[in-house]
Specification:
There is one protein chain. By secondary structure, the protein is an alpha/beta fold. It has helices at residues 2-27, 31-35, 71-74, 109-120, 137-140, 158-169, 188-193, 304-318, and strands at residues 56-57, 77-81, 124-128, 145-149, 173-177, 199-202, 206-212, 226-231, 234-236, 244-250, 272-279, 282-287. The strands form two sheets. Strands 1, 2, 3, 4, 5, 7, 8, 10, 11 and 12 form a ten-stranded mixed β-sheet that branches. The chain has a two-stranded antiparallel ribbon with strand order 6-9. The longest helix is centred in the first third of the chain and has 26 residues, at 2-27. The chain is globular.
Length: 326
């Protein structure tokens, strides 16, 4: 009789252990599942979350305050870099002559608008499409922020890549506007600088409604909760990670939908257009917005004033003049 009880008890314990193992196997996510970004409601899924091997995110401890900038003595100055090695957006106008601050014409809408913002808000603006102006960290440390304005493809040589990386690591500010996402596709560090995101394709240029998701940041504090604008609405692979999303587009307001020319279905309820992060010692503020020439000129366009205020706040926070990425 004792033998029978022990046999029954052993069998019961074995069944219980088997059930527990099966339960754990179905309820504990795998490593791959834990790494997977949140599912997008009705949009693209499993868009990757690569590791760029640097301190990045919204923690100010990732910033290097190493004394490379002295605004009390030098004031504030930014460099606008708009070199293209591929398709060129109309808002850039024709290619600029070599050197620093070559002549601008009315066709250079985006560069001229940034110069005007500086004049109106008391910071100096230099501009160039000459890669030699980015040839060393010492050249870049003259600027509180470097703005990549719709650059395309491989616009940096080896010296400029090294200089940009050392500049950011030394506490520099980076602002990426519109087709800054179409630049240096095969350089992982730069992809991380963009927030661990990259351009894949875009839906048709069309009106939509921007949703201000964070109104604490200086770049969004004065914006309405929702504002109408027209753009190309970039679809992204990989999807931004470890960033503070500042604004997104409401895909339900896009008349022709978010699907891009290469088949990307859009991001559903979570389609970011602007975000910020600390990255590898520096600050990075980026937006996919800014396609239309009218967004940069006096020509009337719905939402253009909100857009320029948004960009201005991004510049001022990236260069350290205002609190960053709140």
């Amino acid at each position: 009789m004792p033998l029978r009880r022990n046999t029954v008890l052993s069998a019961a314990l074995g069944a219980a252990l088997t059930a527990a193992v099966m339960l754990l196997g179905t309820s504990v996510p795998s490593v791959a599942e834990r790494a997977r970004p949140p599912q997008k409601d009705g949009g693209a899924e499993n868009l990757g979350r690569p590791d760029y091997g640097v301190c990045r995110g919204t923690d100010p401890d990732c910033y290097h305050d190493w004394g490379n900038f002295d605004p009390t003595t030098d004031g504030y100055r930014v460099l606008v870099y708009s070199r293209t090695a591929g398709p060129r957006h109309a808002h850039l106008g024709p290619a600029l002559a070599p050197g620093l601050n070559p002549p601008l014409t009315p066709q250079h809408a985006a560069q001229s608008a940034l110069v005007k913002l500086g004049a109106e808000h008391d910071f100096a603006v230099d501009w160039t499409e000459d890669v030699t102006q980015l040839s060393s960290p010492s050249r870049l440390f003259r600027y509180n922020a470097v703005i990549f304005m719709s650059t395309t493809r491989d616009t940096l040589d080896d010296a400029a890549q090294t200089a940009l990386r050392q500049y950011v690591r030394g506490g520099g500010g980076f602002v990426g506007v519109h087709n800054a996402f179409g630049t240096e596709y095969n350089w992982e560090w730069y992809e991380g600088l963009l927030g661990g995101a990259n351009y894949y394709d875009h839906g048709r240029n069309q009106p939509g409604t921007v949703v201000t998701t964070n109104r604490r940041d200086v770049s969004t504090a004065g914006l309405p909760a929702r504002w109408d604008f027209a753009d190309e609405w970039y679809n992204l692979v990989p999807f931004p990670s470890q960033v503070r999303v500042l604004a997104k587009v409401d895909e339900s307001t896009l008349p022709e939908g978010p699907q891009g020319g290469s088949g990307h279905p859009g991001h559903g309820a979570d389609h970011p257009v602007s975000w910020c992060q600390y990255y590898d010692g520096g600050r990075s503020w980026v937006t996919t917005l800014g396609h239309a020439v009218e967004a940069w000129t006096e020509a009337p366009m719905t939402g253009d004033r909100y857009f320029l205020d948004h960009v201005l706040g991004g510049i001022e926070s990236a260069m350290g003049r205002a609190p960053f990425c709140r």
